């Protein structure tokens, strides 16, 4: 479908504003009508996602949710109503969607997504949009999309904050793209991070974050703009602040090739580095000898930033008493396998979901800042962005090249 003659009269009227939109027009609208989105979750995030994908004219939409509508949902899951309490969320949402745009093909899957069905459920998708509300589902969806090479718009919310990104393991260039496991390598232990039911969530927050997710999906399907690949947008509702940080694939992470294979191996960081890094990204002897003055991260190729400390700079500052809190944002088993002396372990996911500054951060000064590190300086740069956004009064630095480069000194 490419010309206006291929549109029904109601469609031609419906999409007039899109046709008139510079850079969009009939061509982009036709791409939307010919595409299929698979949406995980018909709850808080799913409500704006499903509504706007339907209104925008995505031709086919699959809804996956096993839950039923409850009154406690209604302050944020605005696609449902008092009349649909007790009904499956898939059918409640589908009824609203069909009323909004009857010509959209809607397929309901009243089931929970898991390792046994994920690949089947996402198989027809041109894009997957994950609005699920639990970590188990997010990892399953991410792993399935990585295996199948499907683009994935992912978002999450808690209390007053949210984040959005677009993950794609197989970029058109042939390069490996970032996935959810590059942001959060492993799921937290049960009870480590509270759920929305336990911690609460501002009712309007899913509307903001879900709308951003719908926007990214529409842009991608329509072929317009710059997709949110390799970037994560954060939103802090209390402070009316949007932030952004870069995300790259972790070169030490083994790609997920089968469902249930995504757990990081329980091995020392040096062993992971030797086994998983491509030969051309492993730091050379010359790199490590001169790393005190190195001006880039040898694991990612990114240049040294103003907020970075090289291992040499960090060692000198620590020896002079010019380092405050040392924060290790790796997973607990990584920290236990080897860490910098006096470092406090606070995994990135736990840091993200905490509203309070890490213990000891209050004493940080320009002369003795907080220093964050991870394995290769990837997660720590994300932690740096979160800490600077939420607690700008406390100086923070990032250890360039992370523990792996520091350990080689």
TrEMBL record:
Task: Report residue spans for region: Disordered.
Answer: 281-309
For molecular function, the Gene Ontology terms on record are:
ATP binding; nucleotidyltransferase activity; sulfotransferase activity; thiosulfate-cyanide sulfurtransferase activity; ubiquitin-like modifier activating enzyme activity
Q: Which SUPFAM superfamilies match?
A: Activating enzymes of the ubiquitin-like proteins, Rhodanese/Cell cycle control phosphatase
Short name of any one Pfam family annotated for the protein: Rhodanese
Q: Which UniProt keywords apply?
A: ATP-binding, Nucleotide-binding, Transferase
Q: Can you give the residue ranges of the Rhodanese domain?
A: 320-408
Q: What is this protein called?
A: Dinucleotide-utilizing protein
Organism annotation: Nesterenkonia sphaerica
